[in-house]
Amino acid sequence: MPPRHRLDGIVIRQQPIAEADIIVSLVSADQGRVDVLARGARKSSKRFAGGIALFSEISAVTEQGRGHLPTLLESSLDTAFLHLTPTYGQLALASYVVEMAACASQPSHADPGLYAWLRDSLALCETVDEHALRTPRLAIEIGFLQALGVCPDLQSCSQCGQDTASGGTWQDADAGLVCTRCLPAVPDTLPPALVRALVLWSLAPAEPPVDRLPASPALRVAEKRVAVLLGHVLSNPLRSAAALHDLLRFEA
Ligand SMILES: [Zn+2]
Q1: Domain span holding position 24
Q2: Domain boundary at 22, 50, 80, which?
Q3: What is the pTM of this model?
Q4: What is the number of domains present in the chain?
Q5: Is the pLDDT score of 206 beyond 70?
Q6: pLDDT by residue (tens digit) across 129-158?
Q7: Ligand 1 center from residue 181 Cα (angstroms)
Q8: CA of 134 to the centre of ligand 1 (A)
Q9: What is the Å distance from ligand 1's center to 229 Cα?
């Protein structure tokens, strides 16, 4: 008998193939990215019940057959994120989250930090207000950078090493913040509340609740620096990022 494996993970993509099958992509804490073949899943929705839905955390059993991909034998739902009539904005944000996870995860590469970020981010997506996506998006992005180990230390000044509690400027994306003692009275200084939020998200990635930050030039600066850092780790622009960007244009 071919060997069977247990697989726990979150569904980040479904790709229909042939007439009846679906390739289900998962991110697992201990196995990284795993693609499995769900035979007959397009023909019968009962075949795997709710166990392969997008954004779901599932427990599965797979079998390594002769083909390239392991075959999904059983799947049961542990947590269904965004299952109760999500809004368009929530779906757009969650699509962004899973696309980032798809880019950052690797096969056979355990990444508990990325998995925790993915889980927390999807939980956050469930709670967001349709018309206030800007702050949670930034929280999710900072958490992502932190999970990948590429977020600069935002808690300490990159010049003097003292804390940034009184605010700071963020001119060089990679270097992080310069405190108000080193660079006083610079335009677009990030105010203490904004720095506090950035630090919090970098310490506890995307953990809800996320309080809405007021729109300001300083917030725009933080978004731009984060976008630069994301550009280092995401080789191509994400399709879902563009959709989200379109939604955010209407937000104050
Ligand atoms: Zn300083």
Answers
A1: 4-80
A2: 80
A3: 0.93
A4: 2
A5: no
A6: 888 999 999 999 999 999 999 999 999 999
A7: 5
A8: 28
A9: 21
Quote the ligand 1 centre to 225 CA distance (angstroms).
Answer: 19
Q: Is the pLDDT confidence value at 210 over 70?
A: no
Determine the distance separating the centroid of ligand 1 and the alpha carbon of 160, expressed in angstroms.
4
Whether 110 and 164 share a structural domain: yes
Q: Are residues 93 and 69 in the same domain?
A: no
Instruction: Tell me the percentage of the chain whose pLDDT exceeds 90.
Output: 71
Cα(228) to centroid(ligand 1), Å: 22
Q: Which has the higher per-residue pLDDT, 191 or 205?
A: 191
Cα-to-centroid distance, 41 and ligand 1 (Å): 57
- From ligand 1's centre to the CA of 121, what distance in Å? 32
Kindly give the distance from the C-alpha atom of residue 194 to the centroid of ligand 1, in angstroms, as a whole number.
17
3-state secondary structure the chain: CCCEEEEEEEEEEEEEECCCEEEEEEEECCCEEEEEEECCCCCCCCCCCCCCCCCEEEEEEEECCCCCCCEEEEEEEEEECCCCCCCHHHHHHHHHHHHHHHHHCCECCCCHHHHHHHHHHHHHHHHCCCCCCHHHHHHHHHHHHHHCCCCCCCCECCCCCCECCCCEECCCCCCCCEECCCCCCCCCCECHHHHHHHHHHHHCCCCCCCCCCCCCHHHHHHHHHHHHHHHHHCCCCCHHHHHHHHHHCCCC
